[in-house]
Design brief:
This protein has one domain (11-78). The chain is built from 2 helices and 4 strands. It has helices at 49-61, 73-78; strands at residues 11-21, 28-39, 45-46, 70-72. Strands 1, 2, 3 and 4 form a 4-stranded mixed β-sheet that branches. A hairpin with a 5-residue loop joins strand 2 and strand 3.
């Protein structure tokens, strides 16, 4: 895997806790065991664009008032959606 930051081939898939601001800006939550890329060369730890989009879409589509301060990525992604998809995403 190639690192998006330093272009080294030492990047590896892993998981990590991340902190995400809710779409309404009221608070941030911890999302544990989030799919992450870690580069052994430059030390950068980041999420792919695909993972970022999945998290942002899910937070937009669920009732965020019912979220705990901390949860796993799987728990977040399994939360029931109020809408089937993000109708405001015109990037497709």
């Amino acid at each position: 895997m190639i690192c998006q930051w330093c272009e080294s081939d030492t990047a590896r898939e892993t998981s990590n806790s991340v902190y995400w601001e809710l779409p309404d800006g009221t608070k941030a939550i911890e999302i544990q065991d989030t799919p992450t890329i870690h580069c052994l060369e430059c030390g950068m730890t980041y999420q792919t664009d695909h993972t970022v989009k999945e998290i942002e879409d899910q937070l937009f589509l669920i009732d965020c008032t019912k979220l705990e301060k901390s949860m796993t990525y799987e728990t977040l992604m399994a939360a029931p959606r109020l809408l089937k998809r993000n109708y405001f995403d015109f990037s497709k």
